[in-house]
Design brief:
Elements: H1 2-28, H2 36-65, H3 67-73, H4 75-120, H5 132-175, E1 179-184, E2 189-192, H6 194-200, H7 204-207, H8 213-216, H9 223-234, E3 239-246, E4 252-263, E5 269-278, H10 280-322, H11 328-352, E6 359-362, H12 363-377, E7 382-388, E8 394-397, H13 399-415, E9 421-432, E10 442-443, E11 450-459, H14 466-469, H15 489-499, E12 503-509, E13 513-521
Parallel strand pairs: 7-9
Antiparallel strand pairs: 1-2, 1-5, 3-4, 4-5, 6-8, 9-11, 10-12, 11-13, 12-13
């Protein structure tokens, strides 16, 4: 009847409310508010609660429709049905609770512990509760953590050791006077030492990422040697060469360069390392030794020629006295004898740096006299352009030798311009330091840094080939035909400059002419006494 039906429905509702309270209690145990697992669990429990409400509604409908059947079956069967439904729901809730307590919560604790270790850089502490599988997972994580810590410690130690070795090598390389260059396999600079900076004037930032030759090589760098270097690098091979390089200030210097390839553990080319030694002074000393040897030979030859020419000259004088009306043959012999005597005198001037009358003189006076003399002696097709900007420039030496030297250079310039041309004479004042001496072709061993008067004589002639520039001051070496030159004119110039403690710089380009720059030390009036002129082995 209606009373029994209402009683049964109320019973179901009461049991549903009790079940909802149980669900809420389970959800609140062991979970922080608003955690992902809490939200997921509450959603699940809400679904169960809705199912229970549906079950109540369904029970009311069933009871209404089957009132007749219920009256016959009895209240006992209805209680069994409700009990089975309630048991199923409780089993479902218990299963979810077991998953939460046995699996989800331990996994969450493992995640929190791992995240804490990552962010705090502290050792992983682990989580020692939960199911056996969870504990096995925890032990594996602990073992992995310890292995990683050992690996990191080993790598850190190796890295510290490598860095210490690199600092040591860098310190040693910085102390080496030679230039050390390290490039990649592509030839681009990766590192240079302090020796390279001192030698070239370039900082690492100036040359890093570039090929060394793009900055260091210049007009006088031998192209054959450069081509050989490139071929060896392309083949991955080392080499040793001597080459002219240029500093950042465009000063040239000789180097001996050795380059070797570097291969990695897989035998792949990784780097090139080059060591460059400045051999400019060695080259100068070798040149001086060669010229000294030639000078000694020339000295002996000059004395032998004098001994031969003396009786010839005496015989010619006797012939002219005995035969005043002698034919042209005697005159020809006399002219040849005088020319031979002049050559001997040039040899002696070269060897001894013979100084005639030495005194302090105004360079401007000597230059004006020399230019006037050249205007009368040079052909009209050769013009002279003269500029002298220094008012008072005192030189200590032999003014006659200075004039002879300029005339020799002007005559050579004339011979280099058979069709005519232009000679430019310029005089200026410069201050030189010892490192700048390396750009000179010839330097007196008595030369000192200071103020110099520079006489520049330039022509528009044929020029001199680069391979001949190194030898033009050697006695008997000439670029002219045998009948046109003796090879003693520039040798005499070299001897005079050596005797005056000067230097010579030569710049020449085939087809465009040659410029000789003569550096004479300026005499300082406040000096106590002038320096003594060199008188023997001026080219040594």
């Amino acid at each position: 009847d209606a009373a029994q039906k209402n009683l049964l429905v109320n019973l179901i509702r009461n049991q549903a409310d009790a079940l909802n309270q149980l669900i809420n209690t389970v959800c609140q145990q062991g979970q922080p508010d608003n955690s992902p697992l809490q939200l997921e669990y509450e959603t699940l429990m809400e679904s169960i609660s809705l199912s229970m409400r549906g079950l109540v509604d369904l029970s009311e409908t069933s009871l209404e429709r089957n009132r007749f059947q219920s009256e016959q079956t009895g209240i006992k069967n209805k209680s069994l049905l409700w009990g089975a439904s309630l048991l199923f729901v409780l089993c479902l809730v218990g299963g979810f609770w077991w998953v939460k307590r046995g699996i989800s919560s331990p996994l969450l604790q493992l995640s929190v512990a791992a995240e804490k270790a990552v962010h705090s850089h502290e050792p992983y502490e682990g989580y020692d509760s939960g199911a056996r599988e969870i504990q096995n997972l925890n032990r594996s994580l602990m073992h992995l953590t310890h292995s990683l810590e050992d690996l990191v410690e080993t790598r850190t130690h190796q890295l510290a050791k490598t860095e210490a070795e690199m600092r040591k090598l860098s310190h040693v390389a910085s102390r080496i006077s030679d230039a050390v260059i390290i490039t990649g396999a592509n030839g681009q600079v990766e590192w240079v030492n302090d020796g390279f900076i001192r030698q070239s004037g370039y900082q690492l930032k100036d040359i890093i990422g570039k090929r060394p030759g793009s900055l260091l090589q210049g007009p006088k760098s031998d192209p054959t040697t450069v081509a050989f270097m490139h071929a060896q690098l392309e083949a991955g091979k080392g080499f040793r060469v001597q080459l002219i390089n240029y500093t950042k200030q465009n000063r040239q210097y000789w180097i001996q360069l050795e380059v070797q390839p570097v291969y990695d553990t897989e035998h792949q080319l990784s780097n090139y390392i080059g060591v460059a030694r400045d051999i400019t002074r060695d080259k100068q000393e070798l040149r001086d030794q060669r010229l000294e040897t030639i000078g000694n030979v020339a000295s002996g030859l000059a004395h032998d020629l004098n001994n031969i020419l003396a009786p010839i000259t005496l015989s010619i004088e006797m012939l002219k006295e005995m035969y005043p009306d002698s034919d042209e043959m005697v005159d020809t012999i006399e002219q040849c004898s005088k020319r031979a005597s002049q050559m001997v005198q040039q040899l002696l001037n070269y060897v001894k740096g013979h100084a005639g009358t030495v005194a302090v003189f105004q360079l401007k006076d000597v230059m004006n006299e020399t230019v006037e003399l050249l205007r009368f002696t040079l052909p009209k097709k050769v013009s002279i352009d003269f500029s002298f900007d220094l008012l008072d420039t005192l030189i200590y030496g032999d003014s006659t030798q200075i004039q002879q030297m300029l005339i020799n250079l002007a005559v050579n310039a004339r011979d280099a311009m058979p069709e005519g041309g232009r000679i430019e004479l310029r005089v200026e004042k410069v201050e030189l330091s010892e490192p700048q001496f390396s750009s000179m072709v010839l330097v007196s061993d008595k030369a000192k840094p200071g103020m110099f008067a520079v006489i520049r004589l330039a022509d528009s002639g044929t020029g001199i080939e680069p391979d001949k520039l190194e030898r033009i001051f050697e006695p008997f070496y000439t670029t002219k035909a045998p009948e046109d030159g003796t090879g003693l004119g520039l040798a005499a110039v070299a001897g005079i400059m050596k005797g005056h403690r000067g230097m010579i710089q030569v710049e020449s380009k085939v087809g465009h002419g040659t410029t000789f720059s003569l550096f004479l030390p300026i005499h300082q009036p406040e000096a106590e006494k002038p320096p003594r002129m060199e008188s023997k082995h001026a080219m040594a």
